[in-house]
Every structure is written in C-alpha cells, then in structure tokens.
Design brief:
Shape of chain A: globular
Structural class of chain A: alpha+beta
Strand order of the largest sheet of chain A: 3-2-1-6-5-4
Distance between the termini of chain A: 20 Å
Oligomer: heterodimer
Distance between the termini of chain B: 35 Å
Largest sheet of chain A: 6 strands, mixed
Radius of gyration of chain B: 17 Å
Number of domains of chain A: 1
Shape of chain B: globular
Number of strands of chain B: 2
Largest interface: A-B, 27 and 25 residues
Number of helices of chain B: 6
C-alpha cells in the first residue's frame, strides 16, 4: 500500500504541475472497510458532467507507471467543486463542521462529520484552506448522500 | 407479501424488456428536465440515474444468465434452497445490486479494464449505487446525470453486443 501511495503522490504532483491545482486527491474507505478503498479526485478545473475524460487520463497515467490500480482500489470518483460530498469533507478539514485526525502510525485520517459519522481516508493531497463552502445542512439525508458515494 | 408483482425469477427476455423499460423511463425523466408537483419543481436528475442504473444491473444479470446457461436469474437453486441444493441456501453471491460485483461475476471486467476508454465509461457508470434511493431531491446536476446516463447506455450497448 505504501508504494501505491507514493505513486499516487507522484501522480498528484504531476496533475498540479499540469493543471495548476487540486482540491482533493485521496483514498476513502469503502463502506468503512479498511481494505477497500475508492480514489477521489476533485479540482476547481473539473466541470460537472465532464468527469469521464479525467477518469480516462488517470487510467492512462496508471498504465504509464505500470500501476495495477485495481489491486488497491475498487473505484475512482471524480468530483467537481460543486459536489456536496466535497463540501462536507472541506467542512471537516476547516474544523467548521466536524474534524480530521490523522493516525501517525497508520497514516489513516479519521474524518468526523455530523458528530457521529466517521470516514477513514488516506489523504494524498488536499487544498481546502481557501475553499469557499456552500451552506449544507447536516441532516440524516446528508449522511445518506455520503453513503451513496462510498 | 411481495408487492412487486414479481412472482418468479426473470428469464433473459424479461430481463431485457425490463431493462429497456427502466432506461426509457430514465431518459424521459432527464429529457423533460424533471416535473412539477403542487408548485414545487423536482429536477429529477437523481431519479433518472437511479432508474438507469437498474437497467444496467438487469442487463448484467441477463448476460450472466445467458453465459451460464440459466433459463432465469437467479436460478431457483441459488439462494433459496429449492431443488435440494441446501448448501446453496445462503449463497447470495448472485443476488446483489453491486454493479462492480456483477461486472466481476460476468467475467467482463478484465476485457473492460484492458481498454481505458471503455473502462472510463464503466467507472463513470459505477457512480450509480442502489443506495441512491436516499439521494435528496435536486442533489445531482443535469450535466452529471447526463454523463452517468450516457456511460450506462454505452455499457449496456457493449454488454448486449458482447453476448
């Protein structure tokens, strides 16, 4: 896993050099199972409804670097900056609603949302300091939105 | 009591017909940009995707049934304990709504993963999950829904042509 994370880190650096920025590049546990992960990528330059090309570019990068991505991740979720999921995660990173605690031994971040909802993640890159959030209601329905993705 | 009016497991033709019906309903919902009820506007994008995802699920199940020579999906001995196959009573492997798992069960995933363009359609289609039934109204943009529907349609075509 560590070598895969290192390769993901190189890819994130390449994307930033090419496109200028990335909001989030991270693995999120699938249904909170520690050995099942989804890769999430989000950036200001990603437009809603134009995510398939980004998936394709990532797959090409994996192939170029000889990475068998399906050994480590189950799916790739590309999100524009308007995606509700991203705003919930940003709220935790900005300590507005929720918080993020990183386990230094395992490298896994525990993202706490809505007081009682926890997502485990391996953050490769995040840039939420200046991220402008929409107003989101922390409802049970919001939790279900998160579950629809993971 | 099962109120779904589904009294038996479906054969491949019925799966195809049901998939077509679900996908057409999804397309109509998206094309009409939703609906209005008692003065409130429902964009319906998430509902369109929700229906379309089931169309892909049904097509994958049809593919599996045809490949394994089953006259219906799932065959009665799987997950039901009927026909004396007691050891398979608790086998729910084929009784799933997980598209990723269905791609694996179909044996198509390796061929798909070797083609980046095709795989990008599959991955985009996998934004659908059965739990989208909890998706709040107007939570998905038209552009996102359109892209997911297009990807689902592409994968349905591929699976049908591959049989």
């Amino acid at each position: 896993m560590n070598s895969f994370l290192e390769k993901l880190n190189n890819i994130s650096e390449e994307i930033i050099a090419d496109k200028g920025s990335l909001l989030l590049f991270a693995l999120f546990s699938r249904n909170d199972q520690v050995d099942r992960w989804d890769l999430v990528i989000s950036a200001k330059w990603i437009e809603s409804g134009k995510t398939r090309e980004i998936v394709k570019n990532l797959l090409e990068k994996f192939k170029d670097k000889d990475i068998n991505y399906s050994e480590h991740i189950e799916n790739i979720a590309v999100m524009s900056e308007t995606d509700n999921f991203l705003h919930h995660i940003a709220a935790a990173f900005q300590n507005k609603k929720g918080c993020v605690e990183k386990n230094k031994e395992t490298g896994v971040s525990i993202i706490k949302l809505f007081d009682d909802y926890i997502i485990h993640a391996r953050i490769v890159h995040e840039e939420f300091d200046d991220f402008e959030m929409k107003t989101l209601k922390a409802t049970r329905a919001s939790q279900k939105v998160l579950e629809t993705v993971f | 009591m099962d109120w779904s009016f589904s009294t038996k497991n479906l054969n491949p033709d019925e799966l195809l017909e049901l998939a077509r019906s679900k996908f057409l309903a999804a397309t109509a919902l998206l094309e009409h940009k939703g609906y209005e009820y008692e003065g409130e506007v429902y964009e319906g994008n998430e509902n369109a995707v929700y229906l379309a995802g089931y169309a892909l699920e049904l097509i994958l199940k049809r593919y599996i049934a045809l490949k394994l020579g089953w006259s219906e999906y799932p065959p009665k001995h799987i997950g039901t304990g009927i026909q004396g196959y007691k050891e398979e009573k608790d086998d729910k492997s084929f009784i799933v709504h997980d598209l990723n798992r269905l791609f694996i069960l179909s044996g198509l995933h390796q061929a798909i993963e070797s083609d980046d363009d095709l795989n990008s359609y599959r991955i985009t289609a996998l934004k659908w999950q059965a739990s989208m039934r909890y998706c709040p109204k107007n939570a998905l943009s038209f552009e996102s829904a359109e892209e997911i529907l297009e990807s689902i349609k592409y994968m349905i075509r591929y699976i049908i042509e591959t049989i």
